[in-house]
Design goal:
alpha+beta; Immunoglobulin-like; five-stranded mixed sheet; 20 helices; 28 strands; Cu-oxidase-like_N; EC 1.7.2.1; transmembrane
Length: 887
């Protein structure tokens, strides 16, 4: 049995699918175990079989030993690729792809040899399909091997589309279309369409042209050209498919083999349609999982199992009675398996709760995996029956003239179909039972709460439309008369993800884009808090508040009302009752009114630097549209940046123009803190003088107790003392990271409140910011040009959070941290050179509070490079910006 490798690859695919959570690159492995492993091996074996059956050429043109060598070469090449990609070993990928390509080219040459030596006959067009398909696989393999190089996002996207479509529609698609012209009616046991050969001949140029257009569009980055190629391919497939339609109408599928192959063709059409839509919409790299489900599970797996279910019994031979034995095994529970696979796959592609998707997908995997033991049982039963027949040949029944031919009953029974639907319903029920909240179910009714609290229903209804978009609801707070019936019509206007709303004991299901659902509270008994239950959304500020008119004394929106007794204080990370009641960061923020310029000015001339710092308490914007009463030096938070050289003297006059005592501490100087760092009351001043004895980026801050509150309120800044021989760069920026702890969310300067000391003690910031304002550099982006050197100084002024500064898409060839060169530097001061000839680079600058340094990098192509703290929760709190690089 030369199908043993296909069986092996299928078993491995099932194993990886079962343990995918613990397998690196599990999705990639499953796809390639099926397509490159099982299906490609089957194509080698069966295309050779069909070529011989159609052309009737001598066996010595391509002996069995030569065929086996090709299969071994294919097996080795496939194995090397499947090891090379997950281990990121590029040379292994190239070797494996080359071995696979050599095997395919050898296979094509042998097919071409058969075609040249064959006598004229029908359906030579099938061999031309095979030859064109064989051209596609080495091309697709080259695209795949190139992807392993680690290209830019743009080129990765282009090659990914070319790789997928060349292999799927070229290598697999052309082989399938060439084979089914003759195999499909044979499987149905009915005459083929008389137009079959001419339709196949006419469709081939159309399919070949489509592949050329598709690849040209993908390589050029022209989405609509790629879409045109997909549409032309679909048109060629429709033209070819006319040859399959008449046989199917004449004798519809009655067995697992034909029904499985027919289902595969339907999923192929679905896959092409979905791919066309995804390409037209934009990049497809984020939708690889969706396409893998359709093409691998729906199309490839069902095509392979269906074709083998028919071909293996026929090739085993032995006469009709023996052939029916393995066929009976393949037809066991045929309808049930097909319903579970196809309806289950459809359910998994729909926006169902995650645990429902898990339970259904497990059932689909089990239905697919059933083919493996059935195939083994079919072969064993056939071998036993053949041995028994050899020992005692059975009597050959003689059909009397005029006796009607008895056709076997259909294997696709209604009872089994109902069984398949029932199995799926059980899986759905288990998934809902494991996660009832995600399915929109609740266990209590609001009316019971109303009765318990003695609230009288008014009989009136308040109806409100609420929009979910990004990480916020609009409106995020409403006021309802006590006792009214409340109906919230929730619509999800976010095209990127699902949202829901839980309010008290009522909850909507998870909604896709532009879907709607209602939350109904029969009787409003008091203030309530709501939120989105999708993991992480509530913590991002997606909260909703119901206030009441005429609420009993002592009740407030901060009272526990959720299923777990959570309070609004937890939504932004603060202690109960102390957190803001409205979202802080949204996907559609207002403009930042007074952004802080991140450009770092050069050190001023001279060696003595006299500066006056005035302590002021002013309202400042800390996030787009969000204000806080900040404690500042010179009205900014962070305060002014000082810059100089080693040996420079700084004379700072501190004037306290605030309402409380303040002080100052410069880490850049070394002196006893008793006098210069003392706290002075409002209206007084002091002179602080220090000499910069060492280079680096140094923090300064107010050291009045509680020091954490003064730093968190904004009384901090940077002193930069340039290292000796610091090279000039094209652009130089400064980012001071700090935390913001809000007592309330104020949307105007007049409503701004001071820092929350309770939250500081709990170490739960609402925002983590660069230069005082969350996400300000998403709007007011840092600028650079392609090939220009950029230096970014970073100071973590805390008071509590560490930073891991990272530029997404960039690598640091120079790193200076806490007064020392870590990488690069003048004259190779660090562990590597900064001229591009070194062996290393850095991905992040890790800083504890009060530490600083700088990084340098050169960006090779235009684009938008996010600047983040790779403490990702802090990046999501606002430690985020963008470096825009232009040509």
């Amino acid at each position: 049995m030369r199908d043993h490798p296909s069986l092996l690859w299928m078993v491995l695919a099932v194993v990886v699918a079962a343990i995918h959570q613990w397998v690196p690159d599990a999705t990639w492995l499953m796809v390639h175990l099926v397509l490159l492993g099982a299906l490609t091996h089957a194509i080698f074996v069966w295309s050779t079989h069909f070529a011989q059956a159609l052309l009737k050429t001598p066996d010595e043109l391509d002996s069995r030993s030569h065929q086996n060598r090709r299969l071994v070469l294919l097996l080795v090449g496939t194995s090397v690729v499947l090891v090379g990609v997950p281990t990121a070993t590029w040379w292994l990928v190239v070797v494996g792809a080359s071995l696979v390509s050599v095997a395919v080219i050898w296979h094509a040459l042998m097919l071409r040899r058969r075609l040249r030596h064959a006598l004229p006959g029908r359906f030579r067009i099938t061999l031309r399909y095979y030859l064109l398909a064989a051209v596609c696989l080495p091309l697709g393999a080259a695209f795949g091997a190139t992807l392993a190089l680690g290209l830019s996002q743009s080129w990765h996207e282009r090659l990914l589309v070319a790789h997928m479509m060349t292999n799927l529609l070229g290598w697999v698609g052309l082989t399938v279309t060439g084979t089914l012209i003759t195999l499909w009616p044979t499987m149905l046991r009915t005459p083929m369409d008389t137009r079959a050969e001419s339709l196949a001949t006419q469709a081939l140029p159309l399919l070949a042209t489509a592949l050329v257009i598709l690849n040209a569009g993908a390589f050029a980055g022209l989405r609509w050209v790629t879409v045109a190629g997909l549409l032309v391919y679909a048109a060629g497939l429709v033209w070819w498919g006319r040859a399959l339609w008449r046989p199917a109408r004449r004798r519809p599928p009655r067995e697992f083999a034909t029904a499985s192959v027919g289902s595969a063709l339907v999923w192929l059409a679905v896959g092409i349609a979905v791919t066309t839509w995804l390409v037209a919409r934009g990049p497809v790299s984020d939708s690889v999982g969706l396409l893998a489900s359709i093409f691998v599970v729906g199309f490839a797996a069902q095509l392979l199992t269906g074709a083998l279910s028919y071909l293996m019994p026929v090739v085993l031979g032995g006469g009709p009675s023996l052939v029916r034995i393995p066929q009976a095994w393949f037809n066991k529970l045929a309808a049930l398996r097909l319903v579970v696979i196809n309806v289950g796959l459809l359910l998994c592609l729909l926006p169902v709760p995650s645990l429902v998707r898990v339970t259904v997908s497990v059932l689909v995997l089990a239905a697919l995996a059933c083919f493996i033991p059935l195939m083994i049982a079919a072969i064993v039963s056939f071998v036993r029956a053949r041995r028994a027949a050899a020992d005692s040949p059975p009597a050959v029944p003689v059909r009397q003239p005029g006796t009607p031919v008895e056709r076997p009953a259909s294997a696709l029974t209604v009872a089994q179909s109902v069984g398949g639907v029932s199995a799926l319903l059980v899986a759905i029920t288990i998934g809902v039972g494991l996660d009832p909240v995600a399915a929109g179910l609740s266990s209590t009714t609001p009316t019971s709460a109303a009765q318990a609290q003695g609230v009288v229903a008014t009989g009136e209804t308040t109806r409100v439309e609420v929009s979910a978009d990004g990480m916020s609801y609009t409106p995020s707070s409403i006021t309802v008369p006590l006792g009214n019936r409340l109906v919230i019509d929730l619509v999800n206007n976010d095209p990127s993800t699902t949202h829901d709303l839980v309010l008290g004991d009522a909850k909507t299901p998870r909604l896709g884009h532009e879907e709607r659902a209602e939350v109904v509270i029969d009787v409003v008994t008091g203030p309530m808090d709501g939120w989105c239950t999708v993991v992480g959304h509530r913590q991002m500020g997606m909260t909703f508040t119901v206030q009441t008119e005429g609420a009993p004394a002592g009740t407030s929106a901060d009272s526990p009302s959720g299923p777990s007794g959570d309070t609004q204080g937890d939504l932004h990370g603060g202690p109960a009752g102390s957190a803001p009641a409205a979202p802080i960061l949204t996907n559609d923020p207002p403009p930042v009114l007074a952004p802080i310029d991140p450009v770092l000015a050069p050190a001023p001339e001279g060696t003595l630097h006299k500066v006056t710092f005035t302590a002021q308490e002013v309202a400042l914007e800390v996030a787009p549209g969000v204000w806080q009463k900040r404690w500042t030096f010179n009205g900014t938070a962070p305060g002014p940046t000082l810059r100089g050289k080693v040996g420079d003297v700084f004379e700072i006059t501190l004037v306290n123009d605030g309402t409380m005592g303040h002080s100052i501490d410069f880490h850049a100087g070394s002196l006893a803190p008793d006098r210069p760092m003392r706290t002075i009351p409002p209206g007084e001043s002091l002179v602080y003088r220090f000499t910069a004895t060492h280079s680096g980026i140094w923090m300064y801050h107010c050291s009045t107790m509680p020091m954490s509150s003064h730093i968190a309120a904004g009384m901090t800044g940077a002193v930069i003392i340039d290292p000796p021989n610091l090279p000039e760069v094209d652009h130089e920026y400064l980012l001071v990271q700090s935390e913001v702890y809000l007592s309330e969310v104020a949307t105007s300067a007049d409503d701004a409140t001071e820092v929350s000391a309770d939250k500081i003690v709990a170490e739960r910031p609402d925002l983590v910011v660069f230069n005082g304002i969350a996400n300000q550099y998403d709007e007011h982006q840092l600028e650079a040009g392609v090939g220009e050197r950029v230096r970014i100084w970073v100071l973590d002024s805390g008071p509590n959070r560490a930073s891991s500064f990272h530029v997404v898409g960039g690598q640091f060839d120079t790193v200076y941290e806490e007064g020392r060169w870590v990488l690069g530097g003048p004259d190779g001061a660090g562990s590597d050179s900064a001229d591009g000839e070194g062996t290393g680079s850095a991905q992040a600058l890790g800083l504890q509070p009060a530490q600083g340094g700088f990084v340098e990098l050169v960006l090779p192509e235009a684009g938008h490079y996010p600047l983040v703290s790779h403490v990702m929760v802090d990046a999501e709190r606002g430690a985020h910006g963008v470096l825009r690089v232009t040509e």
